[in-house]
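Chain A, query sequence.
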Amino acid sequence: MSDPTDTNSTGGAAEAAEPSQSLGGGTGGRHVRVVLVDDHRMFRTGVQAEIGQTEQTGVEVVGEAADVDQAVTVITATRPEVVLLDVHLPGGGGVEVLRRCAPLMADAERPVRFLALSVSDAAEDVIGVIRGGARGYVTKTITGTDLVNSIFRVQEGDAVFSPRLAGFVLDAFASTDAPPVDEDLDRLTQREREVLRLIARGYAYKEIAKQLFISVKTVESHVSAVLRKLQLSNRHELTRWATARRLV
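Chain A, predicted structure.
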Protein backbone atom coordinates (compact mmCIF):
# COMPACT_ATOMS: atom_id res chain seq x y z
CA MET A 1 0.00 0.00 0.00
CA SER A 2 1.90 3.08 -1.20
CA ASP A 3 1.57 6.60 0.18
CA PRO A 4 -0.02 8.95 -2.39
CA THR A 5 1.20 12.49 -2.97
CA ASP A 6 -2.16 14.21 -2.68
CA THR A 7 -0.59 16.89 -0.46
CA ASN A 8 -3.16 19.58 -1.28
CA SER A 9 -6.17 17.62 -0.09
CA THR A 10 -7.65 18.44 3.32
CA GLY A 11 -10.46 15.94 3.02
CA GLY A 12 -13.23 18.50 3.50
CA ALA A 13 -15.61 18.09 6.39
CA ALA A 14 -15.36 15.12 8.69
CA GLU A 15 -17.41 12.16 7.59
CA ALA A 16 -19.19 9.65 9.79
CA ALA A 17 -21.35 6.65 8.96
CA GLU A 18 -23.81 4.58 10.94
CA PRO A 19 -22.57 1.10 11.90
CA SER A 20 -23.93 -1.74 9.81
CA GLN A 21 -26.33 -4.23 11.37
CA SER A 22 -25.13 -7.44 9.76
CA LEU A 23 -22.06 -9.20 8.47
CA GLY A 24 -21.62 -11.42 5.51
CA GLY A 25 -19.67 -14.65 5.42
CA GLY A 26 -15.95 -15.11 5.12
CA THR A 27 -14.87 -13.17 8.22
CA GLY A 28 -15.11 -15.90 10.81
CA GLY A 29 -17.58 -13.76 12.72
CA ARG A 30 -14.98 -11.04 13.31
CA HIS A 31 -16.16 -7.44 13.17
CA VAL A 32 -14.38 -4.21 13.99
CA ARG A 33 -15.52 -0.62 13.55
CA VAL A 34 -12.73 1.68 12.34
CA VAL A 35 -12.19 5.41 11.82
CA LEU A 36 -9.57 6.58 9.28
CA VAL A 37 -7.61 9.71 10.18
CA ASP A 38 -5.28 10.99 7.46
CA ASP A 39 -5.00 14.37 5.76
CA HIS A 40 -4.67 12.81 2.29
CA ARG A 41 -8.12 12.13 0.87
CA MET A 42 -6.74 9.82 -1.82
CA PHE A 43 -4.99 7.71 0.78
CA ARG A 44 -8.17 7.39 2.86
CA THR A 45 -10.03 6.37 -0.28
CA GLY A 46 -7.38 3.74 -1.04
CA VAL A 47 -7.50 2.28 2.47
CA GLN A 48 -11.28 2.20 2.37
CA ALA A 49 -11.18 0.29 -0.93
CA GLU A 50 -8.50 -2.09 0.34
CA ILE A 51 -9.89 -3.07 3.74
CA GLY A 52 -13.40 -1.63 3.99
CA GLN A 53 -15.26 -4.48 2.28
CA THR A 54 -16.98 -5.58 5.47
CA GLU A 55 -18.31 -8.90 4.21
CA GLN A 56 -14.82 -9.98 3.14
CA THR A 57 -12.63 -8.40 5.83
CA GLY A 58 -14.87 -7.85 8.83
CA VAL A 59 -13.68 -4.22 8.91
CA GLU A 60 -16.35 -1.52 8.86
CA VAL A 61 -15.14 2.02 8.23
CA VAL A 62 -17.55 4.21 10.20
CA GLY A 63 -15.86 7.59 9.79
CA GLU A 64 -13.04 9.62 8.29
CA ALA A 65 -11.21 12.78 9.27
CA ALA A 66 -8.47 14.96 7.79
CA ASP A 67 -7.23 17.01 10.75
CA VAL A 68 -7.12 16.99 14.54
CA ASP A 69 -10.44 18.73 15.21
CA GLN A 70 -12.30 16.56 12.71
CA ALA A 71 -10.72 13.45 14.16
CA VAL A 72 -11.76 14.20 17.73
CA THR A 73 -15.31 15.02 16.58
CA VAL A 74 -15.74 11.84 14.52
CA ILE A 75 -14.09 9.52 17.05
CA THR A 76 -16.24 10.90 19.86
CA ALA A 77 -19.41 10.56 17.77
CA THR A 78 -18.81 7.04 16.44
CA ARG A 79 -16.82 5.42 19.29
CA PRO A 80 -14.99 2.93 17.02
CA GLU A 81 -13.00 0.02 18.38
CA VAL A 82 -9.90 1.07 16.41
CA VAL A 83 -8.65 4.32 14.91
CA LEU A 84 -6.07 4.27 12.09
CA LEU A 85 -4.13 7.43 12.87
CA ASP A 86 -1.61 9.29 10.74
CA VAL A 87 1.20 10.91 12.72
CA HIS A 88 1.41 14.20 10.80
CA LEU A 89 -1.90 16.04 10.72
CA PRO A 90 -2.97 19.68 10.48
CA GLY A 91 -3.91 21.06 13.87
CA GLY A 92 -1.34 19.40 16.11
CA GLY A 93 -0.55 15.94 14.75
CA GLY A 94 -1.50 12.46 15.87
CA VAL A 95 -0.16 13.07 19.38
CA GLU A 96 -2.73 15.83 19.87
CA VAL A 97 -5.55 13.51 18.78
CA LEU A 98 -4.36 10.97 21.34
CA ARG A 99 -4.20 13.60 24.07
CA ARG A 100 -7.73 14.80 23.43
CA CYS A 101 -9.10 11.26 23.14
CA ALA A 102 -7.42 10.02 26.34
CA PRO A 103 -10.77 9.56 28.18
CA LEU A 104 -12.03 7.31 25.36
CA MET A 105 -8.86 5.19 25.51
CA ALA A 106 -9.27 4.84 29.26
CA ASP A 107 -12.89 3.64 29.08
CA ALA A 108 -12.79 0.16 30.62
CA GLU A 109 -16.00 -1.03 28.95
CA ARG A 110 -15.61 0.42 25.44
CA PRO A 111 -12.00 1.47 24.92
CA VAL A 112 -11.07 3.21 21.69
CA ARG A 113 -7.69 1.88 20.59
CA PHE A 114 -5.30 3.59 18.20
CA LEU A 115 -3.03 2.12 15.54
CA ALA A 116 -0.64 4.61 13.94
CA LEU A 117 -0.41 4.24 10.16
CA SER A 118 2.22 6.56 8.74
CA VAL A 119 4.74 6.98 5.95
CA SER A 120 7.29 7.97 8.59
CA ASP A 121 9.55 5.40 10.22
CA ALA A 122 11.44 7.94 12.35
CA ALA A 123 12.08 6.83 15.91
CA GLU A 124 10.84 10.17 17.26
CA ASP A 125 7.47 9.72 15.55
CA VAL A 126 7.07 6.11 16.68
CA ILE A 127 7.92 6.78 20.30
CA GLY A 128 5.85 9.98 20.41
CA VAL A 129 2.56 8.28 19.54
CA ILE A 130 3.29 5.23 21.68
CA ARG A 131 3.92 7.49 24.65
CA GLY A 132 0.65 9.19 23.72
CA GLY A 133 -1.25 5.92 24.09
CA ALA A 134 -1.31 4.26 20.66
CA ARG A 135 -1.30 0.45 20.72
CA GLY A 136 0.87 0.06 17.67
CA TYR A 137 2.60 1.62 14.70
CA VAL A 138 2.80 0.34 11.12
CA THR A 139 4.06 2.04 7.99
CA LYS A 140 2.09 2.67 4.82
CA THR A 141 4.04 0.01 2.95
CA ILE A 142 1.98 -2.61 4.82
CA THR A 143 -0.23 -4.90 2.73
CA GLY A 144 -4.00 -4.82 3.04
CA THR A 145 -4.10 -8.30 4.55
CA ASP A 146 -1.50 -7.45 7.17
CA LEU A 147 -3.26 -4.19 7.97
CA VAL A 148 -6.55 -6.00 8.58
CA ASN A 149 -4.79 -8.49 10.86
CA SER A 150 -3.08 -5.62 12.72
CA ILE A 151 -6.41 -3.89 13.24
CA PHE A 152 -7.96 -6.99 14.81
CA ARG A 153 -4.92 -7.55 17.01
CA VAL A 154 -5.13 -3.99 18.30
CA GLN A 155 -8.86 -4.43 18.88
CA GLU A 156 -8.02 -7.42 21.06
CA GLY A 157 -5.52 -5.40 23.08
CA ASP A 158 -2.26 -6.55 21.49
CA ALA A 159 0.59 -4.21 20.63
CA VAL A 160 1.48 -4.25 16.92
CA PHE A 161 4.57 -2.85 15.20
CA SER A 162 6.26 -3.14 11.86
CA PRO A 163 9.35 -5.30 12.59
CA ARG A 164 11.94 -2.54 12.27
CA LEU A 165 10.00 -0.17 14.52
CA ALA A 166 9.67 -2.47 17.50
CA GLY A 167 13.33 -1.90 18.36
CA PHE A 168 12.74 1.83 18.77
CA VAL A 169 10.08 1.18 21.38
CA LEU A 170 12.13 -1.44 23.22
CA ASP A 171 15.11 0.91 23.39
CA ALA A 172 13.02 3.85 24.56
CA PHE A 173 11.22 1.94 27.29
CA ALA A 174 14.09 -0.30 28.40
CA SER A 175 14.12 1.59 31.69
CA THR A 176 11.78 3.99 33.43
CA ASP A 177 14.41 6.73 33.29
CA ALA A 178 15.25 6.28 29.62
CA PRO A 179 16.62 9.52 28.15
CA PRO A 180 14.71 11.42 25.46
CA VAL A 181 15.23 10.20 21.94
CA ASP A 182 16.74 13.54 20.94
CA GLU A 183 17.28 16.31 23.48
CA ASP A 184 17.46 18.98 20.78
CA LEU A 185 14.20 17.84 19.25
CA ASP A 186 12.53 17.73 22.64
CA ARG A 187 13.05 21.50 22.91
CA LEU A 188 10.58 22.03 20.07
CA THR A 189 6.83 22.19 20.45
CA GLN A 190 4.63 19.86 18.41
CA ARG A 191 3.74 22.67 16.00
CA GLU A 192 7.39 23.65 15.61
CA ARG A 193 8.20 20.04 14.72
CA GLU A 194 5.48 20.05 12.06
CA VAL A 195 6.86 23.26 10.55
CA LEU A 196 10.39 21.83 10.73
CA ARG A 197 9.41 18.74 8.75
CA LEU A 198 7.60 20.72 6.07
CA ILE A 199 10.49 23.17 5.70
CA ALA A 200 12.89 20.24 5.38
CA ARG A 201 10.66 18.72 2.69
CA GLY A 202 11.00 21.90 0.61
CA TYR A 203 7.61 23.50 1.27
CA ALA A 204 7.33 27.27 0.87
CA TYR A 205 5.97 29.32 3.76
CA LYS A 206 2.63 29.81 1.98
CA GLU A 207 2.30 26.06 1.42
CA ILE A 208 3.07 25.35 5.08
CA ALA A 209 0.51 27.91 6.18
CA LYS A 210 -2.12 26.21 4.02
CA GLN A 211 -1.21 22.74 5.29
CA LEU A 212 -1.39 23.73 8.96
CA PHE A 213 -4.25 26.25 8.73
CA ILE A 214 -2.13 29.09 10.09
CA SER A 215 -0.90 32.42 8.72
CA VAL A 216 2.36 32.93 6.84
CA LYS A 217 3.47 35.26 9.64
CA THR A 218 2.90 32.49 12.18
CA VAL A 219 4.96 30.10 10.03
CA GLU A 220 7.78 32.65 9.97
CA SER A 221 7.61 32.93 13.77
CA HIS A 222 7.80 29.15 14.17
CA VAL A 223 10.77 28.91 11.81
CA SER A 224 12.59 31.64 13.73
CA ALA A 225 11.91 29.80 17.00
CA VAL A 226 13.18 26.50 15.56
CA LEU A 227 16.37 28.09 14.23
CA ARG A 228 16.98 29.78 17.58
CA LYS A 229 16.37 26.64 19.67
CA LEU A 230 18.53 24.47 17.41
CA GLN A 231 21.19 27.17 17.03
CA LEU A 232 20.98 27.07 13.23
CA SER A 233 21.34 29.98 10.81
CA ASN A 234 19.04 29.27 7.86
CA ARG A 235 16.60 26.80 6.34
CA HIS A 236 19.39 24.98 4.46
CA GLU A 237 21.10 24.10 7.73
CA LEU A 238 17.71 23.18 9.15
CA THR A 239 17.07 20.81 6.23
CA ARG A 240 20.43 19.10 6.73
CA TRP A 241 19.73 18.80 10.47
CA ALA A 242 16.33 17.21 9.88
CA THR A 243 17.65 14.89 7.17
CA ALA A 244 20.43 13.64 9.43
CA ARG A 245 17.78 12.68 11.99
CA ARG A 246 15.53 11.08 9.37
CA LEU A 247 12.68 13.47 10.08
CA VAL A 248 12.01 14.28 6.43
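The radius of gyration is 18 Å. The longest helix spans residues 216-230.
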